[in-house]
Structures are given as structure tokens and as C-alpha cells.
User: Fold these one by one.
Assistant:
Number 1:
Amino acid sequence: MNGSCHCGAVKFTYFGQPERLVVCNCSICRRLGPLWAHGPEGKIVVDAAPDATIAYVWGDKSLAFNTCKTCGCTTHWKGVGPSTPQNMALNMRLCDPDDIADIPVRRFDGADTWAFLD
Ligand SMILES: [Zn+2]
């Protein structure tokens, strides 16, 4: 499955089809509103120039949220701390809506319990 930011500077591929897409209510996700597909690096490839995105890292500095510098779309996050070096997720709202229409969406309580709410 392929996605890109609005201007096309950042493109990504998810190999296969994710089992689910995740809506999270944590402090950053509730503001950005992405639909995440998680996967280890390797299942996910991001194709962008090194300076095409802004990486936003905060709190315990375990995740970097990447946003296109040109068009402002949040494209993916990537684990940068010792506990999450291999983890990534793509914002599947950047895919063709028809491609993601049949994938179940689950609500994740990233704000509190770190469990699914549904
Ligand atoms: Zn862009």
C-alpha cells in the first residue's frame, strides 16, 4: 500500500495490508488525527530526502513524529529511544481512501492505559 504527503515530497510503502488502523488519544495524536498502521522497519519504507521532514521529539524522547516541511502533513513516527528502535508507524490517511476503507479501525488509549478501548 502506498501513501504520500500532499505535495509528494514524502512517499511511503506498507508491504502487505495492516490488520488494523489505530486512532490514538494521546496528547499528540488527538491533535494531529492520524490513522496509524504499525510495523517493524522493513515492513515499512519511507522515501523522502533527509531534510524533507521535521522530526518532533518530546517527553521521554522515544518517538519522533515526522511532518513534511513543505505541506505540513504528518507522515510517520519512528522509535528513536532504546526501547523502540525498530518501531514505526505510517499515517494511512495519506493513502487512497479506497485502499484503507476495508481495514478495521481500533481506538487506542495512548493517553492513559495503553490498551485498546474497543
Ligand atoms: Zn509534503
Number 2:
Amino acid sequence: METMVTTSRTHVHEPRTAEGVRALEAVLADPAGTLLGLDFDGTLAPIVDDPSAAHVQPGVVHALGRLGRHLGKIAVVTGRPVRTALSLGGFEGVDGLETMSILGQYGVERWDAVTGEISEPPPPAGVAGAEDELPDLLQSLGLEAALVEHKGRALGVHTRQLPEPRKAFEALREPVAALAARHDLVVEPGKNVLELRAHGTDKGDAVRTLVAETGARTVVYAGDDLGDLPAFEAVAALRGTGAAGLLVYSHSSEEETLGHLADLEVTGPDEVAGWLTALADALDRA
Ligand SMILES: [Mg+2]
């Protein structure tokens, strides 16, 4: 097979690694044995100043519905609460997404289209304590304009909307880490955001759970940020057990770490949408 899912628009859709090429061939040969895992922000939805306005890129939901008719499992794996991803995503009730799942808060929460039910364990006690202390901490650093996002089981401290986002982010790292530690939380750095959450789960755990449930022989995972690194590493480890894995990096100027692990690089949610559509086209033809 040589051209695979290359589209007329661009050649970047072809994996640049032998592992990636093998995995793409495996997807086309055995779609029912394939798990497609997708990060939300920066991958399916553009990153915007107001996180509550991050709607999925046009074309994504339609492409996923088409893919859902072929692939064994599609799952969104996100740091967002499931309810937020559901309302911003518009995945509910879409033809082809009858067996989709959303693993929210790094896999602590879950929604399954097949039952329509959401499982949401109560938030860890430390979140409320950290939330109480954050305003004073931010004020002491002159950064009271930083946006604190309430995420149920986690808190996000955003510096994107400040005059010097990167400088503010760096100034906050240590004091926020100390605050988190006092409340038995950990800090997950993202793009101009520090997220405080409980220990214990990451996107790698979420991917391993999905693989164990589905028995997937091929895993495609797309992400854009440091929070996706454990998922990338989980897929890389699965390759060592004979599974095929395709790592797609939704490129951004703000984060370069995932690039060297990826088999395929696309430029943000717009190209992710194009790539998903091209993959659906290829599966329709296969
Ligand atoms: Mg992301």
C-alpha cells in the first residue's frame, strides 16, 4: 500500500515512521480491532482564551461519525470534566458514535454513549482547600487577574489572558506546586495553564483501560500537550507487546515535547479534522 490516506491538500497525512506506516496499514486492514483515542483541547477543538468557548472544529463530529461505522472504538480522553466535553463536543446522539466514550478528568470520569450514563466520583477534599487559598496566593504575586477555572475534581490556573502569559506561568509554577502539595494534589503543567488535581490517574491509564476493555490490536492516539505524553508512552509501550500504534501530534507553537515521539504531525485542530476525514474516506474505500 503506498498512498494510503494522503489527500490532495497536503502530504503530511502520511506517517513519517515505519511504525506509523505499519499502524495505518493495520487500521485499514482491521478497523474493528482499532481504538481511536483523541484529546479534546488543541486536538479536536482550537485553544481559545475562554476555555468555556472551545467548541470542536467544524467537520470533526461528522468525520468521527463516519469513522465510528468502521472502527472498534472511539474515545475522547481529556482533562476536562465529561459534562464539559459533552456540551462543547456535540457528540451525543450522532449517527456512528453509538459506542463512543469520553474519559474525562484524565479517566476519573466517564460517559458511554451506549448507556448515556455519566460516572463522576466526588472531588478529592484537597481541591476545595486549594481553591480557598488560591486568591491570596495570586494576589501576593500581583497575578490576581489569572483565571481560576473550576473543573470539579481539579483547578486550572490560566495565564493566557494576562499581559505576559509565559512570565506569569513561570512565576506561578513553584508557589502553585507548593500549594498543591499542601493539599495532597499534583500540578499538571499545560499551555499557559497549571492544573491542580489528585494523584493517581493520567491519560496513559485511560488508554490502557480502553485497550483492556476492547482488546484493540491497533491504537491511534492524537494529542497536542504535555498531558498527552503518558498516552503517547502507553501506546509506544503497547507496540512492544505486538500491537500497532500510530501517534498523531496536533502541532502547536506552544508545545514541542510530543513532536519527537509522533509518527505523524498535523497543524492543529483544522488539520486534525482534515486527517480524520481522509481516514474516513480511506476506510470507506477499503
Ligand atoms: Mg490538548
